[in-house]
Amino acid sequence: QLYFDFTNATDGYTELGYNMVSTLLPQLDAAGEINNIVVPLSEFENELKPESSVAYNIGSSWQIHKKLLLSVNLFRNDFKNLIDTRVIANKTNGQNVFSYYNVNQSFTQGLETNTTYKPTNRIKLSLGYQLLYAKDKDAITAFKNGEVFARLSPTSPSFELSEDDYFGLFNRSRHMVNFKCFYKISSWKADFNIRGTYRSKYGLFDTNGNSYLDDYDEFVDAYSIWDVAFNKQLFNNYTIGVGVDNLFDFTDTQNISNIPGRLIFGKMNIQL
What we know:
The chain is mainly beta. About 5% of the residues lie in helices and about 50% in strands. It has helices at about 20-30, 135-145; strands at about 5, 15, 35, 50-65, 70-90, 95-115, 125-135, 150, 160, 175-185, 190-200, 225-235, 240-245, 265-270. The protein is globular, with a radius of gyration of 23 Å. It starts with a strand and ends with a strand.
């Protein structure tokens, strides 16, 4: 987080450690790789402080009947000097430059649920959901005291934001869902599975100049990713598989650099 220097050769995004930004970001800019700088270099003049946290969790599981299992977990994490990731610049190739920063006092809290249903020995279904509130405590105070303003365009007048307008920390979705279905075909010595994930909207950086993520900023739209795979055993020592990750070829090259699009693959495992 201090000295990291990485550029993904395939997707083209860059991650820089906190101490490397002041040196390397101007070099990228001089080389014509930077479209605009989102976070000024002056914000990297101090030290990145170590993070500490206290976590609270309480959960329970219920075996509703032999085919259905439900679990629920409530959590709360209080952070001091949270080390978080944010976009600090946009590149000319449509990707972003990321780095790290401290959030003085913050928290994450919410609930997680997981349900597993196995109607037969051949079929297994699972569904998970997370509700997350991730917020900066200093930001909450600023919004509550009427100290935060926004404007809809660079030329429009600014207006005061209320506490309800504060969305939370960057790169955090309020809702996330995952679904899995496994189907075993015993007569073929094969299995099939389909997996899906859903993520609700989230913001990568402040777009209206008040340093916080509020309801008037620009957000990455909600999206879902679906993967499928088929595996078959051959003889006693061989297993072949084929599959497709990101079945519907979802991409957002401007905002999401780690989803390359549809990936079709095959594999063979040999156990000697």
